[in-house]
Amino acid sequence: MNTTILGYPRIGARRELKFATEDFWAGRADAGALARTGAELRADVWTGLRDAGLQAIPSNTFSFYDQVLDTSVLVDAVPDRYRHLAGFDRYFAMARGVQDVPPLEMTKWFDTNYHYIVPELGPDTRFRLADGSAAKPLVEYREAKALGIETRPVLVGPLTYLLLAKPAEDAPDGFRPLDLLDGLIDVYAEVLERLAGSGAGWVQLDEPALVADRGEEEIAALARAYSRLGRLTSRPRLMVATYFGTIGADALRALAGSRVEAVGLDFVAGPDNLDVLASVGGLPRKTLVAGVVDGRNVWRADQRRAKATCASLLGLVDQVVVSTSCSLLHVPIDLDAETSMDPEVRGRLAFARQKVAEVVAVGRALSEDVPAKAEAPAPPADVDHDVRARLDSLGDGAGRGDRAARFAAQRDELGLPALATTTIGSFPQTPEIRRARADLRAGRVTADAYTRAMRDEIARVIALQEDLGLDVLVHGEPERNDMVQYFAEQLDGYAATEHGWVQSYGSRYVRPPILHSDVARPRPMTVEWATYAQSLTSKPVKGMLTGPVTMLAWSFVRDDQPLADTARQLALALRDEIADLEAAGIRVIQVDEPALRELLPLRGADRPAYMEWAVGAFRLATSGVADTTQIHTHMCYSEFGEIIGAIGALDADVTSVEAARSHMELVADLRAAGYENGIGPGVYDIHSPRVPGADEIEENLRRALRAVDPGRLWVNPDCGLKTRAYPETEASLRNLVTAAHRVRADVTGTSA
């Protein structure tokens, strides 16, 4: 082989997987229909990659929800609370929960916006190879072979799987999932032997954990794992793939000393991999799978540079295979579907289908020793000199005033009780809301008619929240398609796609906008909606904005200037929006930064610089308000322990965070860090369809009170409610208010 990719989008060109999955969840389709859709999507990908001229095609990159969850099912790492279920019912219960059984924890896949379902392991976990359709690598390899297509099955590597897992709640102190390595390797050995028996020539084991800081014990575990797998007498050839950064020299030495036949390195996110490879003496008698086409961003590849990189590697390894830097799961499927995009922007882009063609072209140029295709130069990014001059004049941005003075001013201004109740921002996006938005895009309704429909929905949401008894209200965001795309469509420097869907988790897909030039805000973006909502109630209504770091993380961002510079441009636009909201009488403004942890560099040495500019961008956006204006922020689905200091440095008056799936573990981090501002640890998980009882929410609140003073504790769900339906939303929020009133009465003597 001389060309391959590490993975491909699984969702279908028309989002077939989303609709089939949601039909199954709603009872509109049975398990057989869902399975058939999956088989059709897999076949389409394999045949498409073959027809594109790709020489080595991966399989087992499809998933009905998440590849880490698939691995847990494959090795029977199923907690006992799900064992009464079977098939898809068990699988989706682990991902989403059911009424009486909460789901497994979910968090971000390294530094991406893809989410994985966290394995939950204990000392009593006994791995075994699953039977039947749950043995996905075997099933899908045979499916492809029946189509006449030889594939390379892909599995999450054993070390990465265990390093991503967490101890079960009842696991004894000192237990680590890595303690289970030998038992897991037994199952991986069985998988490899059975794949070899089915005719598989290669297997790919993904070990992205090797690009993060790893200690001696973890490197020793890596060496032990691949020594055992390499010594198997009956197995396919093994390719260990790393991506998202630079592999550690010790990890590469361990792989070089093992019997694996190929190693994959990412030369896009990890250009220093070339130096590391040279420092260990190369990989003699091994194949290097060189990730030279960017699998995470949408910019067209410089094919001449990619070929030159591959050519420079030939003296260090036996053979070079041209590949993507990581799975193409992270980019949209086909640029050809974007027929209305600005041609100048479109000319700079490549989506998954085009990236496969780039890999094939570079591989052909390398193997035939002919010049790589000379692409026409991309047009330069537009420069806004006014924006750059304003940023120069602002410098690093001042912080806000004294914390105690601010809290006193806000207490007098807002008059809120202890354990104040609120929601994160969005309310359910009903079919009627989505239809109105589609009608506006298609020209079937006027802008005035659309505005009236959205105002009607806002009035309904405000009335509902007053009936529920919430203390700080939101307008519900009916006018917003997505928390990043909505703002991107109103900012200069961004382009939107029509069909550029990317999976975030399960059936939740997003269309990341493309940030291609300098960012500027030509006009207010949210003021009209917020002030209308505030006119309907005497309670405070939050203005809702998406923060600069999240605008970066959930967009495809220009790569011709440092991220820090682009973040400051976004922060300036938000600073102007916040000033307009404050001038319009909005007293609470929430600037969401759910991606703050997501962009944290995987290497510890790179983190201080990131924290400095990320925190600086948030403070630049929010530091211009009066003490009486309360600034909130929100974060979700990340491991927060490593950024507790940064959360405090943001200096938001209130921070709401995901905490329900992790059983309020965050409170221990908060206690240890001495966090002093307001905190709203999410008391129930909105990504599950189950309705939490008031007792369950009360228990979570009492856990939080072990670390947070009642005057600083807020009560809220863990994320926005747009993906939920109104019946479960109303029931859950009534239970939330009931629980808050109970605890408030207990700690203050009054529920008011």
What can you tell me about this protein's structure?
The protein is an alpha/beta fold and 752 residues long. It has two domains: 16-367, TIM Barrel, CATH 3.20.20; 404-734, TIM Barrel (Alpha-Beta Barrel), CATH 3.20.20. Helix content is 41%, strand content 13%. It has 26 helices and 23 strands. It has a seven-stranded parallel beta sheet. A five-stranded parallel beta sheet has the order 17-19-20-21-22. A three-stranded mixed beta sheet has the order 13-16-18. Helix 5 (136-146) packs parallel to helix 7, helix 7 (181-198) packs parallel to helix 8 and helix 21 runs parallel beside helix 22 (607-622). The chain is globular, with a radius of gyration of 26 Å. It starts with 15 loop residues before the first helix and ends with a helix.
Q: In a few lines, what is going on in this structure?
A:
The protein has 752 residues and is of the alpha/beta class.
Descriptive keywords:
seven-stranded parallel sheet; five-stranded parallel sheet; TIM Barrel; 41% helix; 2 domains; 752 residues; alpha/beta
